[in-house]
Amino acid sequence: MKDKEHLHLLKHLSRPGFFWPLLAVILIALLWAVTESKLAVEKLEAKDRAFQHARAVTSSYAEQVSRAFNDIDRTTLLVKHLWRSTRETVRLEDYFRSGVFPDTHFHVSASNTEGDVVTSTLALPQPLNFGTRDWFQSHKANPQVGLLISRPETGSRTGRTILRFSRRLEDASGNFSGAAWVTVEPPYLTTLYAAEALGRDEFISIRLVDGPLLVTKVGGAEGAPRIFYRKDPIFSLPEGIVEEPGEKFTDDASRIVAWKKVRNYPVVALAGLKEEAVYAAYEASAASWRFAAVAGTVLLASLGALGAFYSRRLARRHAESEEIKNTYRLAVDAAQEGFYTLRPIREQGQSHILDFRVEDCNERAAAFVGSTRDKVVGRAFSEVLPREYHGETDRVLRHVMDVGFHEEEFRVPSATHSGPSWVYRRFMKAGNGVAMVVRDISRHKAYEQELAKLANTDTLTALPNRNWLLEFLPEALRRAAESMSKLAVLFVDLDDFKNINDTLGHDAGDELLKSVASRLKAAVRASDHVIRLGGDEFTIVLEHVESTESVTRVAGLVVKALNEPFVLKGLENQRVRASVGISMFPQDGEDGETLLKHADVAMYAAKAAGKGRYHFYQSHLSERLILRLDKEKALRAAIEQEEFVVHYQPRVETTTGRLCSMEALVRWDHPEHGLIFPGEFIQIAEETGLILKLGRIVIKKVCEQLEDWKASGFPLVPVSVNVSAAQFAAGDVGGVLRELTSAHHIAPSLIEIELTESVMLTSGDAVAKDLDELRAMGVKILIDDFGTGYSSLSQLRDLDVDILKIDRAFTNVLCKDHEGEVFFKAIVSLGHALEMSIVAEGVETQEQHRALKELACDSIQGNFVSKPVPAHEMETMMVKSMLIAQDDMRVV
Ligand code: C2E
Ligand code: CA
Ligand code: CA
Fold it and tell me: Ligand 1 pocket: which of 691, 722, 756, 804 to mutate (most atoms <8 Å of CB)?
């Protein structure tokens, strides 16, 4: 009975009047199902893209913040160190003036144990005390606090919002002796991130991990309302991303919020993107899709009705069916998908497939191959598809005949036609054929690539960024290793960037960075890579390097390119210069990180050697990276073994070129590393007190040498010995000298002592007595590195010394910069008025010598005359005596 009813129903439905409406209803349902599922996918994709974008913004911001925090942290450590090494008399004002600290939104101060501010880079109109503040109390109570980040507050001097990073200060014995802090204004932490990447009402901020806000920046027009969380969020995971509902924010807009913990600090960087903006594009396209679906529905419905009507006329039945299929195709065309139904072509009676025939397709599918449907249907697929990818597709089709299903994203060979560059293809075995669906995903792919580019490009200069470099280097190194070729990494750091920022403003700074980027690109081959690492640091990677000379040439070009003055904000003649450090693969490191680190180390060496130059990495430069403890131990042992030699550098009279003195410079003669220069160990020796023994060894070696020379009959000149502040503080330099000179039978007046200004100006009576005693013995006193330290010209009269040795930084700017010459002249005339003799050190060129002669500087020392040399090489110079010829003033 039931079956009978069933049969009846079927018969009823299959009657022509029902068939077409039913078919129309099925197709309409299908059309909507396809549309809605497609929209759901598209919405997910939009969300996915927004998530990726938020993650990219957050992680690049977190990276920048981590660098800024590192700078701040290092500054507090530097102050802590200076505090201790100057015995609590450091004057941050002087360091500020000399440009050690960053730009205008950055202030450094220190207080004594009571919390009274004693020194600061920010003007101190009246006494200030922080003794009662929580942070100060925590440092006082607890030595373990480390760097303390306080919540935002209003600065008592600036009246603006500030963030405070403080650190405990200790005296030489480790007791609490005050606090140091850096305060920064929010722009210091937000200008790091290019605002262009933020849309209206989107934000980036930094929060403590337990919630409180440190700084925030909102995209959109200037003066846009600030947006806050109503209640501080808590971040229990190191990174993540969530959709936050509108009620969480003061403007009631829901957002996608991504966060990432900043390496080494208890803070997170976060970015909030407005959902409304994220889905705007999607909503627009959804509306047009639905419109197309409605249109399709109306069409199908009316055709269904028409079909019902016409179907009664059997003669026209076939035509109607075709028309409905076409309509369906039309509706599907609006959905951007192309489809083919393909049937294998086989040789008569054989199972082997020769080709596929297009049984049907829609217009869009035909358009993808640059044709129309009527030209494609019925043809062999090998004739339809461009030759460039028919082979590939044919293989997939045969595979699908075996396994039933395949899907892929396919890059269309670019040579074929002007159609899509990327398509999504899905193949399904259906009966004895294959249904193939093709969708254009070029836009989506382009967006993906855009995102990748965003994450890999520096927004200011459009150069690739650190991210890019870190992905690129391993690949490049693998290639270099395979082809056994060399690769060079150049680390470029601008020398005076901060000056430009401070004096001309951030806009000028940005303008400068852009010009630097284009000069760097112009200085290298098109195949070389210029990367901006961040701030004023750039990297250049040279692949397929043939020789060190070619790297030297490029480094020279880079230095020269940046040496040329810039025009900024219409102001000509802005100078910055750059220091370049170079490391080479494979000899200086096998992986990217090591190469970068070594190039960085070499860059510091270039800076130390006087800026505006390049320096290759040498393994001894890394010595400073060896754990301090190891070094201290090694140094202690070296002192026991007396593993030291003294080199000598001549000083000559400026006018006559006659040898008048020489400087003793110690070198650590390391059994494995060879000669190590004082820059690598004097500081540790000073900090650990080992300098006392080392100083004694040097004086002893000098006395032995003089005794030796005297015995061999060489014409003697005085030798000047460098003596550190610590040696004087420990007292009895006079006693040591008296003992050793008499033991080796030489006159004390053959020894001169080089001191820095700080010793003279900050030490007490005991030192003054020591100096008096030395002078009484006939030992001359020199002030070394004059001009770099504590005293100003006006304090010169307080220095009771015989000779002023002007630091090589000033020699360096002679002939280059008018102000430098004026300064030099002032020192010379004031020094002469006070009956001091003037020495210029670091004289490297004939031009400098000539200028110094004109300035009436008494004597000169430097590579122009001779580098520091071992004692036996000094002997020739002692005999010759006249080291610079008079006629043309050349080195003889
Ligand atoms: P300093 O007293 O300023 O010594 C001069 C430094 O400048 C030496 O470096 C010397 O090699 C270098 N120099 C000389 N002429 C030129 C030149 O034309 N151009 C350039 N760019 N540099 C030149 P060195 O030997 O590495 O010594 C570094 C520092 O180590 C010295 O600076 C001094 O402060 C310290 N030092 C060296 N020997 C001793 C020592 O026996 N005892 C103590 N306490 N310190 C020492
Ligand atoms: Ca010296
Ligand atoms: Ca010096």
Answer: 722
Strand arrangement, sheet containing 486-494: 529-534, 537-545, 486-494, 578-585, 614-616
Q: Residue 269 in 3-state DSSP?
A: strand
Report the candidate in 213, 410, 431 with the shortest Cα–Cα distance to residue 341.
431
DSSP class per residue in 162-216:
EEEEEEEEE-TTS-EEEEEEEEE-HHHHHTTS-GGG--TT-EEEEEETTS-EEEE
Residues 71-110: b if buried by 16+ CB within 10 A, e if exposed: bbbebbebbbebbbbeebebebeebbeeeebbbebbbbbb
SS3 259: strand
Going by their DSSP bridges, the two strands 148-149 and 161-170 should be labelled as antiparallel
Residue partners of 329: CB distance under 8 A and separation at least 6: 362, 363
Work out whether the CA dihedral 196, 198, 201, 207 comes out positive or negative.
negative
Query: Beta-carbon neighbour count of residue 252 at 10 Å?
Result: 11
Give per-residue pLDDT as tens, 852-868: 999 999 999 999 999 99
Q: Could you report the per-residue pLDDT of 785-818, keeping only the tens digit for each? A: 887 755 556 566 667 789 999 989 889 888 887 7
Q: Is 722 exposed, middle or buried (0-12, 13-18, 19+ CB in 10 A)?
A: buried
Residue 193 tokens read as 């991130």
| Cβ contact 363:373 at 8 Å | yes
Of 466, 396, 462, the residue nearest 434 (C-alpha):
396
Neighbouring CB atoms inside 10 A of 458's CB total 21
Residues 6+ apart with CB under 8 A from 249: 227, 228, 229, 230, 255, 272
pLDDT at res. 476:
93
Count of beta carbons in the 10 Å neighbourhood of residue 146: 12
At position 727, the amino acid (one-letter code) is Q
Give the start-end residues of each E strand in 566-712.
566-568, 571-574, 578-585, 614-616, 644-653, 659-670, 674-676
**Atom 10 of ligand 1: nearest residue by CA position:** 868
Question: 480: how many CB neighbours lie within 10 A of its CB?
Answer: 17
CB atoms within 10 A of CB 619: 12
Residue type at 310 in one-letter notation: Y
Ligand nearest to the CA of 666: 1
Pairing of strands 837-840, 859-861: parallel
Decide if 105 contacts 185 (C-beta within 8 A).
yes
C-alpha to C-alpha distance for 701 and 755, rounded to whole angstroms: 19
Instruction: Using CA atoms of 723, 725, 730, 734 in order, give the dihedral in degrees to the nearest 10.
Output: 40
Hey, how many other C-beta atoms are within 10 angstroms of the C-beta on 560?
12
Residues 702 and 744: their CA atoms lie apart, in Å, by 10
Residues at CB less than 6 angstroms from ligand 1: 609-610, 649, 665-666, 677-679, 682, 695, 698, 722-724, 754, 784-785, 808, 842-844, 862-863, 868
Judge contact between 112 and 177, C-beta under 8 A.
yes
Distance CA 24, CA 304 (A): 5
In degrees and rounded to multiples of 5, residue 345 shows phi and psi of -100, 125
Per the CB < 8 A criterion, the answer to whether 861 and 843 are in contact is yes
| Residue 135 near residue 148, CB atoms below 8 Å | yes
- Read off the DSSP letter of residue 249: B
- Between the CA of 697 and the centroid of ligand 3 the distance, in Å, is 20
pTM exceeds cut of 0.70: no
Beta bridge partners of 422: 411
With beta carbons less than 8 A apart as the criterion, state whether 554 and 530 touch.
Answer: no
Residue 627: pLDDT band with limits 50, 70, 90? very low
Helix (H, G, I), strand (E, B) or coil at 255: strand
